[in-house]
Amino acid sequence: MEDSREIGLAAWCEAQTGHPQAQLEVVSGDASFRRYFRASDGQRSLIAVDCPPDKEDMRPFLLVADAYQAVDIPVPMVLNVDLKQGYMLQTDFGHTVLLSKLQERNVRQYYQQALSILPRVMQVTETAEGALPPFDRALLDRELALFKDWLLMQHIDIDWTDEDDDIWQHFCELMVSNAFEQPQVGVHRDYHSRNLMVTPQGLGVIDFQDAVIGPMTYDAVSLLRDCYIEWSDELVTELAQQLRADLQATGQLASAVTAEQWQHWFDWMGLQRHTKAAGIFARLAHRDDKTGYLKDVPRTLGYLSNVSAKYPQLSDYHHWLTQRVIPAWERA
């Protein structure tokens, strides 16, 4: 069956570049409705984006791209855009996502590069149209609810009890409180090894259209406790604490914030992030028929188990997770 949007995008690319596009090369789709293709202007490779306007608004991407470029965050340059049709051409960072390059021998070097970009991300709290959206209570609640609604109820089909609800509600309250205890800064909101590109000039940042003003540790834990690859606690803690020291050195974080406080913020922010991610993976499988994401659920559940085990305040949640939720997941 012909793909009318892909045909339309190819014709639009030809009109913009003056170069015939024999066939667009599929780069990837992602967890949204956007699709990415490789095009050409006859001299260089470009990225053509199909973003159906009835499904997703392209303007946040354009606004955040401009704001990030203004503080020297390495993002693709937008060359042409048609908001009405939902088409865009941008520069091409190449084929190499960070995930494909990470190994024990180079992970510290690459993650230090990635972490060095975050202080600039934190500076971006507004675009040309005003303040970024807040990572507010409503958004936190929606993200946490994905775990219950999609993983527990839809995928596992758990028999939800009052005891489940008490433990779950208490856990959610702790997660929300932790998010608001932290300094609120610019947050990319999906900063991990599949959204960082390895280029000859260094790392490039993509997929930033959902940027918000939110908790300071969010992007760091998204990177260091990545849903797609896992590293030792020792390395993660070392790099997380190095970021704290760097932020304190530049005055972006108060010197009174101790290593223990920072680690608590970081760890619990990761619990919120991985709770959301597990729910999203289940939703992608059931709503969008992208079942490949289910293979990443065990890693997120592992993070939840390992981190919650370190905190006595989470002992009821940890017991519930390991004795009820994870066994139910394994049986599903």
Automatic annotation (TrEMBL):
One of its GO terms (molecular function) is ATP binding. Pfam families: APH. Residues 24-247 form the Aminoglycoside phosphotransferase domain. The keyword Nucleotide-binding applies. Keywords: ATP-binding, Kinase, Nucleotide-binding, Serine/threonine-protein kinase, Transferase. Coiled coil: none annotated. This is Serine/threonine protein kinase. It comes from Idiomarina fontislapidosi. The lineage of its organism: Bacteria, Pseudomonadati, Pseudomonadota, Gammaproteobacteria, Alteromonadales.
